């Protein structure tokens, strides 16, 4: 049934809610909702009326917000409002970014050429940029493919230059210590995705 209902769609990404919600599909210039025997367009434009161009990724954070990458721009959906969030990341406008995951303190974003960025969620719901990880701070490359964290609070960052991990519980003179995984540790992959 899934193939029959989606056979004419070029699906770029899918989000399956671990809490049993519907499956959300990013397909070109629309976001679809797939649930039981129905598929329907959920939304296709920002709140200001700007139509989506090419949604390539879709994530839901632990507060119920939906994050999308539309042709390099980060879009943020909270409630019924969808806005371009890219300017709030304070990176050059031509640098693509994407929200990778949320943790208890906020959101992690990957970028193409600007490293990894964390936005801290403040008690009033506002956000501030509190961590930037890039070549200057120890990453092997600023072109980040993916970001995740493990149960020990190690942040794992894959990039064009390899795989790194950071212990978010420890700093040295206020800076996080970035460890690059090397061949002698059993990983001989120059770029990691």
Strands, total number: 16
Low-confidence stretches: none
Q: How large is the radius of gyration?
A: 18 Å
Helix fraction, binned, reads: under 10%
Spatial order of strands in the largest sheet: 1-2-3-4
Structural class: mainly beta
Cα distance spanning the termini: 31 Å
Overall mean pLDDT stands at 87
Number of DSSP helical runs: 1
Shape: globular
Order of helices and strands: HEEEEEEEEEEEEEEEE
Most strands sheet: 4 strands, antiparallel
Describe this structure in words.
The two termini are 31 Å apart. The protein is mainly β. The longest helix has 5 residues. It is globular. It is built from one helix and 16 strands. Helix content is 3%, strand content 50%. The relative contact order is 0.09.
Helices and strands in order, then pairings?
Layout: H1 2-6, E1 13-16, E2 23-27, E3 30-35, E4 38-43, E5 55-60, E6 66-70, E7 73-78, E8 81-84, E9 97-103, E10 106-111, E11 116-121, E12 127-133, E13 144-149, E14 154-159, E15 162-172, E16 175-180
Antiparallel strand pairs: 1-2, 2-3, 3-4, 5-6, 6-7, 7-8, 9-10, 10-11, 11-12, 13-14, 14-15, 15-16
Task: List the main descriptive attributes of the protein structure presented here.
193 residues; 4-stranded antiparallel sheet; mainly beta
């Amino acid at each position: 049934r899934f193939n029959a209902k989606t056979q004419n769609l070029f699906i770029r990404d899918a989000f399956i809610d671990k809490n049993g919600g519907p499956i959300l599909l990013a397909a070109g210039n629309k976001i679809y909702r797939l649930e039981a025997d129905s598929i329907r367009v959920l939304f296709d434009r920002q709140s200001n009326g700007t139509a989506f161009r090419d949604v390539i990724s879709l994530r839901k954070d632990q507060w119920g917000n939906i994050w999308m990458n539309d042709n390099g721009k980060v879009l943020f959906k909270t409630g019924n409002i969808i806005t371009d969030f890219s300017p709030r990341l304070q990176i050059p406008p031509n640098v693509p970014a994407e929200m990778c995951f949320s943790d208890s303190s906020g959101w992690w974003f990957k970028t193409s050429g600007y490293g990894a960025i964390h936005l801290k969620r403040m008690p009033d719901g506002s956000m501030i940029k509190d961590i930037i990880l890039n070549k200057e701070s120890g990453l092997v490359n600023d072109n980040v493919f993916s970001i995740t964290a493990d149960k020990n609070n190690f942040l794992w960052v894959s990039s064009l230059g390899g795989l790194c991990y950071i212990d978010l519980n420890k700093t040295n003179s206020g800076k996080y210590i970035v460890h690059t995984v090397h061949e002698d540790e059993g990983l001989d992959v120059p770029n990691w995705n």
